[in-house]
C-alpha cells in the first residue's frame, strides 16, 4: 500500500510540473500498476573481479545493430541513443515512449536486443541540441529523465534498459550548463526508477575538452550517479596520423588514463565502479585519401585489431574496472578515424569478430585472479579462475608487443592437470586447438601476439 501511495505521489508531482498532463498520464499509470520485481545485472562486490560475461561489452547503434549476429561476442551492449530522435528540436516535448518522435519503436529495438540476451546500457546523446535550444533546461531535462526511466527502467514491466549515460561526449556544452543538465536529468531518472544505473558522460581527470567532461563536474553529485564512464584509445599521436599503438605500450596514456581515473575515484568517489565505454582500433583494407584531413591517417591490420582488442580485455580485467565496451560493432571500411573500427565490415565478420567471440566463450565464466608474469616488451601470463568452480583455471599467455615478436617459455603446473590449450583464432574455420602437452609437471609454450589459453584443473587429493 505504501509503495502504491509513493508511486501515486510521484505521478502527481510530475503531473504538476508537466505541460502535457492528458498526453502522459495514462502511459505513466499503466507502468506503475505493472511494477514487477527486477533482476538487473548486479555489480560484483568491491574488490571481486567480474566474470567476463559481465565484463565484455560492445558499442552498437539503434536500428543498425544486429543482436543475433553480435550475441556471439558478448552480453553487454551500449547504444548511442539520440535525444533528438525522442523530442525533435523541442526540448519541451513530453516523449511519447515507447516511440521516439521520429516514430522509431524502442520496444521493438531494445526488445530484440534483450531477446538475444543483451544487457542494455543507453548513452543519451545531445549532439544536435545546443545549449541555447533548451526551452527550460532544468525542467525539460528532469522530465525526459523521469519519462525514460519510468518507461524503460528495470523496475517496470518492459525492463529493457538497466543503465543510462547522461551524454556521450558533450563537449559543446560548457561545464556549468552540462552539470545543470546532468543534475536535473539524473534526478528525474532517480524518481522515475531508482533501479536504473545512472552513468556519467565520458569523463577525464584533466580539464574538460571537446570529447570529455572533467570529473570535477561531478563533485558533490555522488548520490546522482552509479558509475563513471571513460573512453580510452591507444593513440601515439592525434592529427595528422591518429596512429595507435598496442595496448600494453608503456609509452602511451592508454592504461595510464585508466589508472588516473581509478586514483581520482578512490579520492573523491569511493566505491563508484568505472566503466570503459569506448576503446578500439581502426583496420581498413583501403589506402587513405591522397588529400584532406585524413591523408596521413594510419590504421592497423585486421590481425592486429583482433589481437589488441582481446589483449585489452585481458589487461583491463586486471585493473579496478567493472565493464569494458569495445568500439565498434560494424564499419564500412572507411580509412579514417573511427571509420573502420567494427568487428564486422558491412556485417561480414573480420578477424576481430572471431577473436573476441573466442575470448567470450573461453573466459565467460572466469574472472581475473592474478598476474603470473608481467614483463613489458617480453611476456605476459595472467591467471583466471572459474566463478563457481575455483579448481578450474585458465592461464593466458602472450607477447605484449606490436612488432610481431615471438618467444618461448616454460610454465610449471605445480601438480595441476593441463586439459587443453587454445590460441586466439582469426577465421571461422581456424581451429583454436594447440598441441601442447605437459612433461615433468611443466608445459613448454611457443607464444606470439595472439594469446594462448591453457585450461587447467587442480588435482585435489581425496580424503
The main pleated sheet reads as: 8 strands, parallel, barrel
Strands of the widest sheet, in order across it, are: 1-2-3-4-5-7-8-9
Total of domains: 2
- The shape, in one word, is globular
Q: Which fold name is given in CATH as the topology of the largest domain?
A: TIM Barrel
- The CATH homologous superfamily of the largest domain: Glycosidases
**Into which percentage range does the β-strand content fall?**
15-25%
Low-confidence stretches at least 5 residues in length (pLDDT < 50)? Answer: 1-42
Q: Based on DSSP secondary structure assignment, what is the total number of beta strands?
A: 20
Mean pLDDT: 91
The second-level CATH architecture of the largest domain is Alpha-Beta Barrel
Helical content stands at 25-40%
Please state the CA-atom Rg, rounded to the nearest Å.
23 Å
Please report the first level of CATH classification, the CATH class of the largest domain.
Alpha Beta
**Helix/strand order, N-terminal first:** HHEHEHHEHEHEEEHEHEEEEHEEEEEEEE
Task: State the secondary-structure class.
Answer: alpha/beta
Query: What is the CA–CA distance across the termini?
Result: 55 Å
DSSP helix count?
Answer: 10
Explain this structure.
The protein has 463 residues and is an alpha/beta fold. The chain has two domains: 2-366, Glycosidases (TIM Barrel); 369-457, Golgi alpha-mannosidase II (Immunoglobulin-like, Sandwich). Helix content is 27%, strand content 23%. The protein is built from ten helices and 20 strands. An eight-stranded parallel β-barrel has the order 1-2-3-4-5-7-8-9, surrounded by four helices. A hairpin with a 2-residue loop joins β18 and β19 (442-447). α1 runs antiparallel to α2 and α6 (137-152) packs parallel to α7 (175-192). It starts with a helix and ends in a 6-residue tail after the last strand. The relative contact order is 0.10. The model is unreliable at 1-42 (pLDDT under 50).
Amino acid at each position: 500500500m505504501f509503495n502504491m501511495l509513493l508511486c501515486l505521489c510521484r505521478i502527481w508531482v510530475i503531473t504538476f510540473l508537466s505541460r502535457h498532463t492528458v498526453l502522459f498520464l495514462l502511459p505513466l499509470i499503466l507502468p506503475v500498476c505493472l511494477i514487477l520485481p527486477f533482476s538487473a545485472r548486479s555489480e560484483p562486490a568491491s574488490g571481486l573481479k567480474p566474470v567476463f560475461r559481465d565484463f565484455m561489452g560492445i558499442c552498437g547503434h539503434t536500428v543498425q545493430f544486429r543482436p543475433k549476429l553480435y550475441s556471439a561476442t558478448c552480453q553487454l551492449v551500449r547504444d548511442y541513443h539520440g535525444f533528438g530522435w525522442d523530442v525533435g528540436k523541442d526540448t519541451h516535448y513530453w516523449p511519447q515512449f515507447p516511440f521516439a518522435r521520429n516514430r522509431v519503436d524502442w520496444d521493438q529495438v531494445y526488445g530484440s536486443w534483450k531477446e538475444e540476451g543483451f544487457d542494455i546500457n543507453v548513452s543519451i546523446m545531445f549532439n544536435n541540441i545546443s545549449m541555447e535550444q533548451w526551452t527550460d533546461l532544468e525542467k525539460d531535462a528532469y522530465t525526459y529523465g523521469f519519462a525514460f526511466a519510468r518507461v524503460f527502467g528495470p523496475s517496470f514491466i518492459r525492463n529493457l534498459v538497466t543503465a543510462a549515460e547522461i551524454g556521450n561526449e558533450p563537449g559543446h556544452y560548457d561545464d556549468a550548463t552540462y552539470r545543470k543538465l546532468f543534475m536535473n536529468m539524473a534526478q528525474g531518472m532517480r524518481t522515475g526508477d531508482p533501479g536504473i544505473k545512472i552513468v556519467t558522460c565520458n569523463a577525464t581527470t584533466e580539464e574538460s575538452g571537446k570529447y570529455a567532461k572533467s570529473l570535477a563536474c561531478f563533485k558533490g553529485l555522488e548520490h546522482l550517479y552509479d558509475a563513471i564512464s571513460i573512453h580510452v584509445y591507444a593513440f601515439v599521436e592525434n592529427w595528422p596520423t591518429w596512429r595507435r599503438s598496442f595496448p600494453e605500450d608503456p609509452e602511451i596514456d592508454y592504461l595510464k588514463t585508466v589508472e588516473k581515473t581509478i586514483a581520482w575515484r578512490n579520492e573523491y568517489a569511493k566505491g563508484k565502479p568505472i566503466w570503459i565505454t569506448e576503446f578500439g582500433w581502426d583496420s581498413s583494407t583501403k589506402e587513405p585519401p591522397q588529400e584532406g584531413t585524413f591523408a596521413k591517417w594510419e590504421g592497423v591490420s585486421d590481425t592486429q585489431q583482433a589481437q589488441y582488442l582481446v589483449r585489452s580485455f585481458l589487461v583491463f580485467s586486471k585493473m579496478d574496472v567493472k565493464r569494458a565496451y569495445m568500439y565498434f560493432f560494424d564499419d564500412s571500411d572507411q580509412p579514417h578515424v573511427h571509420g573502420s573500427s567494427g568487428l564486422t565490415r558491412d556485417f561480414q565478420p573480420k578477424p576481430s569478430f572471431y577473436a573476441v567471440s573466442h575470448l567470450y566463450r573461453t573466459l565467460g565464466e572466469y574472472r581475473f585472479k592474478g598476474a603470473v608474469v608481467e614483463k613489458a616488451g617480453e611476456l605476459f601470463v595472467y591467471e583466471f579462475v572459474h566463478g563457481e568452480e575455483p579448481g578450474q583455471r585458465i592461464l593466458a599467455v602472450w607477447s605484449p608487443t606490436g612488432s610481431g615478436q615471438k618467444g618461448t617459455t616454460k610454465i610449471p603446473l605445480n601438480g595441476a592437470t593441463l586439459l587443453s590449450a587454445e590460441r586466439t583464432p582469426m577465421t571461422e574455420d581456424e581451429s583454436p586447438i594447440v598441441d601442447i602437452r605437459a612433461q615433468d609437471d611443466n608445459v613448454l609454450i611457443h607464444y606470439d601476439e595472439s594469446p594462448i589459453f591453457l585450461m587447467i584443473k587442480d588435482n585435489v587429493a581425496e580424503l
